[in-house]
Design a protein that fits this description.
heterodimer; A: mainly alpha; MetI-like fold; two-stranded antiparallel ribbon; 15 helices; 2 strands; B: alpha/beta; D-Maltodextrin-Binding Protein, domain 2; 2 domains; eleven-stranded mixed β-sheet; 18 helices; about 15% strand
Chain lengths: ~300, ~450
């Protein structure tokens, strides 16, 4: 950085080409501008990740001194049925959430990409759930899921169906939580698809129509491939988000019934802040980290194999 | 989902910068008697108002000490306290409760208060017990809360039922509690649980709130049936003995067999549904800690009454839960912190907190102030709480790891109240897991 500045200052004397000089100064400013974010990323993301990685090799009961434990925590993890159960629950949650919320977002975007009256209002309406705080959401959905006086079961009762005990039934609790997530994030994801759709030039559709493409063909051969970059972004962020779910679980089920909603993040929280076992909680965090990393890399490979079109 | 995180990070960054600058301007004035600032932390926003007055009085008597009150909501309180204890920045004086006490005291976070030479005989014995470790006092007894039976007087009137002088229960279903609860339980067609044609799926109002809540429910049934929660403080769980299991069965029967209480699918933790149902006038009798009064009474649009908790086969035994004021072992101002802790145990602040209706103080002889407050301002007779406190009371389990075990315990007992595990199965499982966690 200092070298750049020096080069810029005496640039005239040493006859550095004007272009290079300008680029040098530009870099310097760029760092200045991204400095605060860079500091944040380092101090609140990279550094903690490194610390957690380190801690995963320690036995640390929080209020006592940490002692080096080598691979003990990882050995414990290998034989910890609860941890693997949590991973399974998390994967189940991801599989329930991501396809639904991505699909729904795409459908919403297609519908709201039309020239209909009041379309702006609907676009805004679908994004509103995303702005609500998870804790408040959890409390409200607790009422909605109440088996007796809740909105869902009351509505089902009107058509003669007895709804399940949503949050206290081990087979319904996880889908119920997934439903809340889908409801909250579909509208938000719709925004990205909407932006993607509006980036596709109308001429392409006109040309396709001239060639006699059916609406289905236009969607699968034109729209979907051209949305590839958007799809990649939405899928990656949704998957990561779903793997990291915590707040709705904490408020609505506390991991129950019978640990059926004890997702990995919830187990990590319990191990760290209720059992004070920070070393092992760090090991569990590394497991979650590894899983997310692998899944994301697979996605990167999958999407990078496909062609993206430069529409600019 | 990434956006909120970024915003959080930005907020943290802002907070960090702010703290840095705040630290920078701290040093200054030299010479003169040095001004010391103590941090006092609590979790109750209502009591904070009372403590502002208490601290003002303390500061007046000790002009060189400033006390800064920090209020954190319950959940954050414990997370932050843990983090602070690790970072070495815990508040100088703060509130402690029995479920968390063992962890903090055993790990050396709390200062030994023997030096204060407190006359422990003048405080409620449960609170002294739950503030002691290895024969030494680690907390100044602050107050106690006790479970009593709140009831909806309007519902009693409507059903034409008088609250009996003594409510009693037995595992076989005899006693005045169940009898009274049956009269108050009504389905959509106006039928009671012992009548032909009564439909348990269509109950309008429930006579009694029985649910999975250890402090106000099953622990009370266990002890008043002669069962034991723990063999001794810092010992092992024992609530799977025959008497305990019988008592647990009684609590579950009220829901699933006698149909006088709402189904567990509605009330199971982590919901606060039972409180809501009582406030909405759907449940007639509701055991609750007196600490809940300020939250329940102003919200209720009916007349609230307080009665003694029901008497079991071995008499009445009620959970009495005390709080204490503790001093951080690594406080930078140990002398001043001790001074504050000692002051908080004296007559003046404890009387103020009682007279303004916040708590029953731990110091003996001041409870009438609390009773008078509720009588005068809310026309509520809270003497049953006081009367219970003079009889058999018990502490919540004082044992290592209870705070961590709580979630597991609640989950297992949720299954029991749903009827998916028998009380014997649930108690055996909970005791086994609990005792594995006390290490």
């Amino acid at each position: 950085m200092t070298a750049d500045v020096a080069a810029g200052e005496d640039g005239g004397a040493t006859a550095v080409p004007a272009r290079a000089r300008r680029r040098g100064t530009g870099t310097w400013y760029a760092y200045l501008f991204i400095g605060p974010s860079l500091f944040g990323v380092f101090a609140f993301l990279l550094l903690p990740v490194l610390i957690v990685l380190g801690l995963s090799f320690f036995d640390w009961e929080l209020l006592s001194e940490p002692t080096f434990a080598g691979l003990d925590n990882y050995r414990r993890l290998a034989g910890d049925g609860q941890a693997w159960h949590s991973l399974l629950v998390t994967v189940g949650y991801v599989l329930l959430c991501v396809p639904l919320q991505t699909g729904l977002a795409l459908v919403l975007a297609l519908l709201l990409n039309q020239r209909v009256k009041g379309v702006r209002f609907y676009r805004a309406l679908f994004v509103v759930p995303w702005m609500a705080t998870p804790i408040v959401l959890g409390l409200i959905w607790n009422w909605i899921f109440d088996p007796r006086d809740g909105a869902i079961n009351s509505a089902l009762a009107l058509v003669g169906v007895t709804g399940p005990d949503w949050l206290s039934d081990p087979s319904w609790a996880l889908p119920a939580l997934a439903l809340v997530n889908v409801w909250q994030y579909s509208g938000y994801n719709m925004l990205f698809f909407l932006a993607g759709l509006q980036g596709i030039p109308q001429e392409l559709y006109d040309a396709a129509a001239t060639d006699g493409a059916t609406p289905a063909q236009r969607f699968f051969r034109l729209t979907l491939p051209l949305l590839n970059p958007t799809m990649f972004f939405v899928m990656v962020t949704n998957l990561i988000g779903a793997f990291q779910v915590f707040d709705t679980v904490f408020v609505m089920t506390d991991g129950g019934p019978s640990r059926s909603t004890a997702v990995l993040n919830f187990t990590i929280f319990g191990t760290a802040f209720r059992e004070f076992d920070f070393g092992y909680a760090s090991t569990l965090s590394m497991l979650l980290f590894a899983v997310i990393l692998v899944v994301t890399l697979v996605q990167v490979r999958f999407f990078s194999k496909r062609t993206t079109y430069d529409l600019s | 989902m990434p956006a909120p995180r970024i915003r959080q990070a930005a907020a943290l960054l802002g907070a960090a910068l702010f703290t840095l600058t705040a630290c920078g301007s701290g040093s200054g004035s030299a010479g003169e008697p040095e001004q010391v600032t103590l941090t006092y932390r609590l979790w109750d926003e209502q009591q904070k108002v009372g403590y502002e007055k208490v601290m003002a009085a303390f500061e007046k008597a000790n002009p060189t000490i400033d006390v800064q009150i920090e209020m954190l909501p319950w959940d954050q309180y414990w997370t932050k306290l843990t983090a602070d204890a690790v970072a070495g920045t815990a508040p100088d004086v703060f509130w402690m409760q029995p479920a968390a006490f063992p962890e903090y005291v055993a790990k050396g976070v709390l200062a030994d208060l023997s030096g204060l030479k407190l006359d422990t005989a003048k405080y409620h014995k449960n609170v002294v017990e739950s503030s002691s470790y290895q024969g030494k006092l680690y907390g100044v007894p602050k107050d106690w809360g006790i479970v009593g039976l709140l009831y909806n007087k309007d519902l009693f009137k409507k059903a034409g039922v008088e609250m009996p002088d003594e409510l009693t229960w037995k595992p076989d279903g005899s006693g005045t509690l169940l009898e009274t609860a049956r009269k108050l339980t009504v389905d959509e067609n106006g039928k009671h649980p012992d009548e032909a044609g009564f439909e348990p799926g269509k109950i309008e109002t429930y006579g009694f709130g029985s649910w999975n809540h250890y402090q106000t429910q099953w622990m009370n049934w266990v002890v008043s049936n002669g069962g034991k929660l723990l063999d001794k403080p810092f010992g092992s769980y024992t609530f799977n003995d025959a008497a305990s299991v019988e008592a647990l069965q009684f609590g579950v029967d009220l829901v699933n067999k006698h149909h006088v209480a709402p189904p567990a699918s509605q009330t199971n933790l982590p919901t606060g549904k039972m409180t809501e149902m009582f406030q909405a006038g759907k449940v007639a009798m509701f055991p609750a800690n007196n600490a809940l009064l300020p939250f329940v009474v102003p919200e209720a649009n009916f007349e609230v009454g307080v009665a003694l908790m029901p008497e079991g086969p071995q008499g009445r035994a009620v959970s009495l839960n005390g709080l204490s004021e503790v001093v951080y072992a690594k406080s930078e101002h140990p002398e001043e912190a001790m001074k504050l802790a000692a002051y908080l145990g004296t007559q003046e602040p404890q009387k103020l907190m009682a007279d303004e209706g916040y708590v029953f103080p731990a110091l003996d002889g001041l409870a009438d102030g609390y009773v008078d407050y509720w009588k005068k301002t809310k026309n509520l007779d809270v003497t049953p709480f006081l009367e219970e406190s003079k009889g058999t009371t018990f502490n919540l389990p004082i044992v290592n790891g209870f705070a961590g075990f709580e979630t597991t315990l609640n989950q297992i007992f949720n299954e029991m109240y749903l009827g998916k595990l028998t009380p014997k199965q649930a108690a055996d499982k909970a005791v086994a897991e609990g005792n594995a966690s006390t290490e």
